[in-house]
Amino acid sequence: MTAREYHxxxxxxxxxxxTNAHYLDWDNYPLPFKIYPDLEPIPLxxxxxxxxxxxxxxxxxxxxLLYFSAGITRRRQYPDGxxxxxxxxxxxxxxxxxxxxxxxxxxxxxxxxxxxGPGDLALxxxxxxxxxxxxxxxxxxxxxxxxxxxxxxxxxxYQARTYRHFGWDNGTILANLVTMAEAMGWESRVxxxxxxxxxxxxLGLDREKEVALSVMAxxxxxxxxxxxxxxxxxxxxxxxxxxxxxxxxxxxxxxxxTELSNLEEVLRWRASxxxxxxxxxxxxxxxxxxILRRGSARRFRREPIRQEELAEILLQGARTVSTDxxxxxxxLYLIVNAVEGVEAGAYYYKVEDRKLELLQAGEFRxxxxxxxxxxxxxxxxxxxxxxxxxxxxxxxxLGNRGYRAVQLEAGLLGGKMYLAAYGQRLGATGLTFFDxxxxxxxxxxxxxxxxxxxxxxxxxxxxxx
Length: 465
Hints:
The chain is an alpha+beta fold. It has helices spanning 3-9, 14-18, 59-70, 151-158, 162-183, 196-203, 249-258, 263-271, 287-293, 307-318, 365-371, 377-380, 391-398, 401-423, 435-442; strands at 42-43, 72-78, 81-86, 97-103, 112-117, 122-128, 143-150, 188-191, 210-218, 300-301, 330-336, 345-350, 355-361, 383-389, 427-431, 450-460. Helix 3 (59-70) crosses helix 5 and helix 10 (307-318) packs antiparallel against helix 14 (401-423).
């Protein structure tokens, strides 16, 4: 299985969507959390204000970072039950991304490997001891946040296309993590180059069900300590996600094709990365308030946004993040429906110049709705931003591992656009799309590229509570 094959096999088209017999089995709906029934929780402080004057290497600061990245920010009661809303957007609100912390001794938290539980805002220690040195080839750091993807929790709805969603949903969480780290004055770096088997074993993952996707290094350290000894295999009980889990081998084959087996492979892969651009810091004020206000708009009012608001969304979305896979694999194409001072039409965003290049003038609300899987949202929104990438270039340079990087970068871009939109009291949502029709619409400019993600923004028809 190659990334090219997987991408082509999971494309949406009108034919593939209409002939798919899949249905949502609500009696088999997956749990929204990973639960370790035998591990004692370590409660985290329930405080949403940014801790001032607190060492970054205290539990209070770590809690703040995790809560505003993957915590439960709102609860809403419905006749059929309660819906829990998280700090970062996720496809289908299925929340298949799990966060783990690998750290040395903090001021009030012992060294160990921990799982973050959003449901009860607690950590659970999987391993005692300082295991940072077991992560081969990663830059030394006081702590790491590891993101994993649980296949079934998202595949319940999206089937084999879930592997694409791993990148999007991991990316939106990382966008919050990066933004919160900046706000708290922490150095951060998003890492995709690591030895998969080492990280999976360290976390005790069942690779048939859950796999490590990325690592974020937080802070700087002179050197990683040596591991405390032989790494025992973890055999920790977890609550089944559903009564029955349906296997989609295609996504597991795709992930296996991206794995790096040893340190030598990691170093060779990293040597293929273009010279990194320095990260560009974003605004720090009121980040928490924006995240608490953020939601995924379910409907948009057909009202224009200001040109300055669109410029801020594009600027914040495209600003560089510190990674080990470079930056700029995704390019931004827009359908502008209603932006004051900007002619309606199809555009290409020149990131370096911060300018829009008009590809075709015209009213394209109907086309935007069609391209967004025949949903009203991108047609009603003020703007629909399509992320396209030259996959052949990315895969030729980075191999199959590059597919993780491209999808993850798209999620980061989309997540930062979410925050920029809600920071201006607008709304935003992520969407899926008809792959080849998107490329055709923006061609000849987009010829040879692939559609990766779609974000729509505008005035929400119903504001979040």
